[in-house]
Each structure stands twice: as C-alpha cells, then as structure tokens.
Amino acid sequence: MFRNLTPVVKNLLLITVLIYFVSAMIMPQLKAIGALYYIHSSKFLPFQFLTYMFLHADGWHLFSNMLGLFIFGPLLEQYLGPKKLLTLWLVCGVGSGLLYSGYTAYRMNSLDQEIAAFNNDPTPERFNDFVKENRHLFRTGVFDFIDNFSRNPESKELKQRARENMSQVRNIQANIPMVGASGALFGVLIAFGMLFPNTQLFLLFPPMPVKAKYLVLVYGLYTVYNVINNNPLDNVAHFAHLSGLVIGAILVTYWRKKRDSFY
User: Membrane topology type, per the record (predicted)?
Assistant: First the structure.
C-alpha cells in the first residue's frame, strides 16, 4: 500500500507526522509559536501563515488530514506532476490562512464595535446581548453577575466589571490559534473531484460507493452550512475549509485552461 505513495505526498506525510510528534513530545512550544493567530494579536508572526498547516491539535486531527492526503494525493500527483501537487497543497494552505485571517479580522471588528457601543451606553441589556453571542468564552458565574447588574444598572462598580469581562473575552478571542492542514486538504479534495469526478470511492461510514463529485459536493455544502450557522461552540475553522475549496477550484480551473503546462 505504501509503495504506491508518490514522492511529494510521501514527503508531506513524513514531514507533517514528524513535526506533530516533535511538538507533542519534545518541543511543545512549537505549537504556540507556529500556530496562526489573529494578525493584531501579540502572538502573531508572519511565518505562521505557512507553519500552522504543519501543526495539529491532536492525533485524530492529524490522522484525518493525512488520511485524506494519502487517499487523494497520489493520483493527483501522477496527473498534475509533483510541482503542481506541491503548489496546490501550499497555495491552498497558505491562502486559507490568509482568508481566514481576514474573516477573523472582520469578526474581531464586530466584537470591538459591540464593546464600543457598551462603553457609550453601559446597560445590562447590552452586556447580556454580548454574553449571549460569546457565552462560550465566559465563565459560568457570569449569569449571576448579569442578574446583579440588572438589579443595579447604575452601579459604577458593576459597569466597570462588565467592561473588564468584555475586555477579557476580546483578548481570549484574539489569541485563539488555528492549526492544521485542513485548508490544504480541501484544496486537494476539490481538485480530485474536478479532475476525476466519476471515480468511485467506497465510504466506510456508511459502507457504500459514491462518485468523487458527489462526495465533494456534500463536503462543500456541509462546510457552507457550518460557516453560515457559525456555532460558537464549534472549534473547527470551517471558513478555512471553505477557503481551501475555493482556492483549489480556482487553481484547477486555471490549470485546465493551460493544459499544455501539465507535466
């Protein structure tokens, strides 16, 4: 099975798995340095747009991404050539990081606007709305605080505590890291679906055959749904997945128009 691995796919697998074990067992600080942070975070460094895609949150995260590369990568490399497969992987990975950073900046701007609105009019209602939208970042005791604030809406001390709580939540949100090669993998997935749409794939769950184009369509729709739904308790960067799909589709479309450059 492993004999069928193509050179770029094999090297990407080896490098990513090696980095995972080094960061998990020898140098845990690698993840803190190499993960992708909000561009205005004190932890952000420009090289993170590349390094984040070689780091993973846990073993299952690593396994699922590398399994996808293992399944779809070799045939793509044989068809596109090693340079284009590597370009696809890196461009989709880095591009996903860039687009996700833009998305994060938009969300942080919305957060800042809510905080500014509260500072201009510090009412319990505004604070309660803020907590509802960001409840996953608050401690459980915040609801007791809301009750107290509602009963004493003119308290300067409670207004100040509310401001401090909101500032803490903003700092938490600004320093949530993103890791993983999912954006790159989704680029590979869309490329496979576009270039080999009628290839039959056999799913494990449920155990049934499905054409590649339908599998990609389901993944795409599911990703769009999660981006729109925006569940605050979901720690998966669905927008990065969607970005990988879009960038991968653009690359393949461009390469199709330049068929003489395939090698």
Answer: Multi-pass membrane protein
Cα–Cα distances (Å) from 30 to 64, 100, 171, 179, in that order, read: 21, 21, 21, 11
User: In whole angstroms, what is the distance from residue 18 CA to residue 22 CA?
Assistant: 6
**pTM listed for this prediction:** 0.87
How far is it, in rounded angstroms, from Cα 212 to Cα 44? 37
Q: Contacts from 111-116 at CB under 8 Å and sequence distance 24+?
A: 111/169, 111/170, 111/173, 112/170, 114/166, 115/163, 115/166, 115/167, 115/170
Where do the domains of the chain lie, and which CATH numbers do they carry? 2-104+178-261 (1.20.1540.10), 109-174 (no CATH)
201-250 pLDDT, tens digit per residue, is 876 667 778 888 888 888 888 887 777 776 665 566 788 889 999 999 99
Q: How many CB atoms lie within 10 A of CB 36?
A: 30
SS3 breakdown of the chain: % helix, strand, coil, rounded to 5? 75, 5, 25
The Cα–Cα gap between 99 and 196 comes to 27
